Amino acid sequence: MRNAVRFRSPKFNTTEIKEHFINNICFGEDLARELADGMKERSLTVYDPWQEDWGWQLGASECLISVGFDGDEWRIDVDPNIGFFAKLMGKTVDIPPVTSSIDSIIKADPANTDIQWFCASRSGQELDFADVP
Which residues pair with 58 in a beta bridge? Predict the structure, then answer.
């Protein structure tokens, strides 16, 4: 299951440090808002983006989506957002509707290039690269 994507885009802010940024690397607000709007249009339950000290996050259909800028590319990670006890009881979260929505939102804009999906493990290992989630 591919749960992360990286791509390049000149469309989103990577230079203007906004007054409300926690620190000077909190880029991704405009990308997170675009994802939230696009997923709402696709009838997913979405929670408004919030800032972290490294970028932005938002919730969508029991998933936690992390958005950040790393040097010259954007990265989006999608993780199931279930509690410890729910996980112990065997609850799972179906992330393909979320990753498919993100894929269609990113690919809808020709300014977004070099799109590469992969599986990001908990240990940080990147596996199973492809053009689709």
Answer: 65
Asked if pLDDT for residue 38 goes beyond 80, the answer is yes
pLDDT in tens, 25-35: 899 999 999 99
Handedness of CA 112, 113, 117, 121 (dihedral sign): negative
If we measure between CA atoms, which residue out of 101, 57, 55, 72 comes closest to residue 10?
Answer: 72
> Per the structure block, which two tokens stand in for 121?
């493990």
Q: Strands, E, within 1-133: which ranges?
A: 4-8, 46-51, 56-60, 63-70, 73-80, 113-120, 126-130
Closest CA to 35 of 61, 10, 72, 70: 61
